[in-house]
Amino acid sequence: MKELLVLRDLESIKAIAHPRRIDILKAFEKEPLSAKQLSQMLDEPHAKINYHIKTLYKVGILELVEEKIKSGIVEKYYYPTAKNIMVGKKVIDFSLDNLWDEEQKDICISKFENMSELFYRAAEEELLQPYNVIEYDDVSFTESEIKEINEAMKLKIEEILGRKAEVESASGYNIALVSIPILEKEEYNL
After folding, report:
1. Residue 84 · residue 4 · CB < 8 Å
2. Residues 7, 91: contact at Cβ < 8 Å?
3. Overall pTM surpassing 0.70 (yes/no)
4. Residue 79: which of 102, 56, 99, 101 has the closest Cα?
5. CB atoms inside a 10 Å sphere around CB 64
6. Is 140 exposed, middle or buried (0-12, 13-18, 19+ CB in 10 A)?
7. 126-154: pLDDT as tens digits
8. Which helix (H) or strand (E) holds 83?
9. What is the pLDDT of residues 114-130, one digit of tens each?
10. What domains sit in the chain, N to C, each tagged with a CATH number?
11. Phi/psi-derived region of residue 72, left when phi > 0, alpha when psi is between -120 and 50, beta in every other case
12. Among 15, 117, 120, 136, which is most exposed with the fewest C-beta within 10 angstroms?
């Protein structure tokens, strides 16, 4: 089972948007369940539960983990493909106002969205380690201190890249240092 599944298409989002399908996902604990077991747990007709299971299976939210023959009937057992499910931001990113004051803002947003997508994919593939993310929330810096941090990071990366030819076992990474100005509390809702 993966740690994270990011839904990136409307078909997957529609599949999980149904309240009964969320109930089905919440019903799973540590073991696979069949449609019959789920219908008993949720007090729902077997045919309806089976329909919802097939929908979730079709888009990859559930996986078939076992088939057992009971009284001549094949009983299929399913389990969620991931512990956590998220909706990818790009799928629902919509704005009527696509006009930006500066072309530079478009480039920065595009780079951030690309890095965000790479982060989600690495999380899905369980490639992230604790050292891959360093986070400091709600710290105060001056504009010149932020520039100093950026310059120090850039110099260190360039120094390491200069030695890269000496290291045979180096792996590829995408690196971003993002400093996000804190908005006033009434400007955002978390």
Report:
1. yes
2. yes
3. no
4. 56
5. 12
6. exposed
7. 888 888 888 887 888 898 998 899 889 88
8. strand 82-87
9. 777 788 888 888 888 88
10. 2-86 (1.10.10.10), 94-187 (no CATH)
11. left
12. 136
